[in-house]
């Protein structure tokens, strides 16, 4: 009997050792992750580029989360950016208006979370009023990379100030203004800290279109503006970029840009001057302002320095009839910006317009800018070009700005002038 008990015990031990992988404490089981859509809100109305965002978690440890996925109606699941705090750009320009289901799920490497789902109504405007054939896009990339290279939130605030001016003073429709900033998030500590909310979630004065400054968003927004504005002969287009330019700051003579194109950094890629030229090649508007405020950006205006032209093979082809192309620095020089107020050149240019102080400013030698000597040139209106010459003059003749006067902003002006007073492109 005793030998039978011993044999049975040995058999049980063998059984347990062979199949111990199937016996676990309840605490050892994988816990499914969670996900929550925080924006847009359920039953919201949306348009343009929709920044879907939310949170995800995993009881086993948030670092075990591998991804968050988004599904729009019956489209395939697509990866969001981020995990515990995530976002997804939904470009709706080519989609039909109506009700859409947005679904989100997270994956921890073993199991999916339960699906969080909301319904939204897509309502993109089909047309604009006959007196509002004006479009604007603002692109600001400030806070990618290491902290010592970040530019703060000043570019965002300045672009919102300019947007408000176009809406309140120049008759632009909020539907036709697009602001793309960083990855679409506002951060603490003036851009140097953590994400706190998407641009669409944060409070803003006007219901303009917000999104991330990714290359896809920039390209699709520009194509949308071209498609819409080309429907009207009297269309007006305003384009503004603020970002890091690409060059060698240690090369004080040429910035490392000899026989190289001007290029600016977007959130996830780069944009060269000829790429932007190609993007805008089909734009028909004869009242187009293009401002690129970045280091080493003169090539966008087909200029190098002192208003000298770019070599033929490196032309951007941005400068066309009816366009004024402006850069905040020459191709060989760095630009400057305040982390709380924005880039210096645009600040001066915009001040010249809203204050009226730029009225009558003329090109002068090497397009350096000078006040008018003839009162006939002061007509109570400030053109895009007058504001440029005002900003150039202020850089060279303001004692407090002495350290910045090497920026050498450039202009390529193809807007037809009136013979008597030389009036240029007036916004609105």
Describe what this molecule looks like in 3D.
With 428 residues, the chain is an alpha/beta fold. It has helices at residues 2-18, 154-170, 215-229, 273-279, 344-355, 384-397; strands at 34-39, 45-46, 49-57, 67-72, 78-79, 85-91, 98-107, 116-122, 134-140, 177-181, 185-187, 195-198, 209-211, 236-242, 263-265, 270-272, 288-293, 323-327, 337-338, 342-343, 410-413. Mean pLDDT is 89; it is low at 4-8 and 10-26. It is globular and about 80 Å long. Helix 5 (344-355) packs across helix 6 (384-397). The protein is 19% helix and 24% strand. 44% of the residues are buried. The longest helix is centred in the first third of the chain and has 17 residues, at 2-18. It has 2 domains: 34-122, Sandwich (Immunoglobulin-like), CATH 2.60.40.10; 134-413, Rossmann fold (3-Layer(aba) Sandwich). The protein is built from 6 helices and 21 strands. The strands form 6 sheets. A 7-stranded mixed sheet has the order 13-10-9-14-17-18-21, sandwiched between helices. Strand 11 and strand 12 (195-198) form a beta hairpin.
Spell out the blueprint of helices and strands.
Blueprint: H1 2-18, E1 34-39, E2 45-46, E3 49-57, E4 67-72, E5 78-79, E6 85-91, E7 98-107, E8 116-122, E9 134-140, H2 154-170, E10 177-181, E11 185-187, E12 195-198, E13 209-211, H3 215-229, E14 236-242, E15 263-265, E16 270-272, H4 273-279, E17 288-293, E18 323-327, E19 337-338, E20 342-343, H5 344-355, H6 384-397, E21 410-413
Parallel strand pairs: 2-8, 9-10, 9-14, 10-13, 14-17, 17-18
Antiparallel strand pairs: 1-3, 3-6, 4-5, 4-7, 7-8, 11-12, 15-16, 18-21, 19-20
Helix pairs in contact: 5-6
């Amino acid at each position: 009997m005793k030998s039978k008990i011993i044999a049975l015990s040995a058999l049980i031990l063998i059984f347990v050792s062979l199949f111990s992988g199937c016996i676990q404490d309840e605490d050892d089981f994988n816990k499914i992750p969670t996900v929550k859509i925080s924006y847009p809100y359920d039953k919201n109305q949306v348009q343009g580029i929709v920044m879907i965002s939310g949170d995800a978690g995993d009881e086993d440890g948030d670092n075990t989360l591998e991804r968050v996925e988004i599904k729009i109606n019956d489209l395939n699941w697509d990866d969001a950016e981020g995990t515990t705090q995530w976002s997804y750009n939904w470009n709706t320009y080519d989609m039909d208006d109506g009700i859409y289901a947005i679904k989100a799920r997270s994956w921890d490497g073993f199991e999916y979370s339960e699906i969080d789902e909301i319904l939204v109504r897509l309502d993109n405007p089909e047309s604009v009023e006959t007196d509002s054939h004006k479009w604007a896009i603002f692109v600001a990339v400030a806070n990618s990379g290491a902290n010592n290279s970040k530019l703060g939130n000043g570019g965002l605030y300045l672009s919102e100030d300019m947007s408000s001016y176009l809406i309140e003073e120049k008759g632009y429709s909020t539907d036709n203004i697009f602001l793309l900033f960083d990855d679409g998030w506002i951060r603490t500590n003036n851009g140097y800290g953590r994400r706190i909310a998407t641009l669409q979630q944060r409070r803003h004065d006007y219901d303009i279109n917000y999104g991330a400054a990714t290359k896809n968003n920039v390209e699709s927004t520009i194509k949308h503006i071209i498609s819409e504005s080309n429907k009207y002969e009297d269309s007006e287009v305003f384009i503004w970029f603020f970002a890091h330019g690409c060059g060698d700051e240690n090369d004080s003579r040429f910035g490392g840009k000899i026989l190289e194109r001007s290029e600016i950094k977007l959130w996830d890629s780069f944009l060269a001057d000829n790429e932007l030229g190609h993007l805008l090649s089909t734009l028909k508007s004869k009242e187009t302002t293009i401002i690129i405020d970045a280091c080493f950006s003169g090539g966008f205006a087909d200029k190098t320095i002192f208003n000298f032209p770019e070599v033929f093979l490196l032309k951007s082809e941005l400068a066309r009839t009816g366009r004024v192309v402006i850069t905040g620095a020459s191709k060989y020089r760095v630009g400057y910006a305040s982390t709380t107020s924005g880039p210096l050149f645009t600040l001066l240019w915009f001040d010249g317009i809203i204050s009226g102080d730029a009225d009558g400013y003329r090109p002068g030698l090497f397009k350096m800018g000078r006040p008018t000597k003839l009162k006939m040139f002061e007509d109570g209106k400030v053109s895009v070009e007058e504001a440029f010459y005002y900003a150039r003059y202020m850089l060279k003749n303001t004692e407090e700005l002495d350290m910045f006067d090497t920026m050498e902003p450039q202009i390529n002006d193809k807007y037809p002038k009136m013979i008597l007073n030389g009036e240029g492109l007036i916004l609105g």
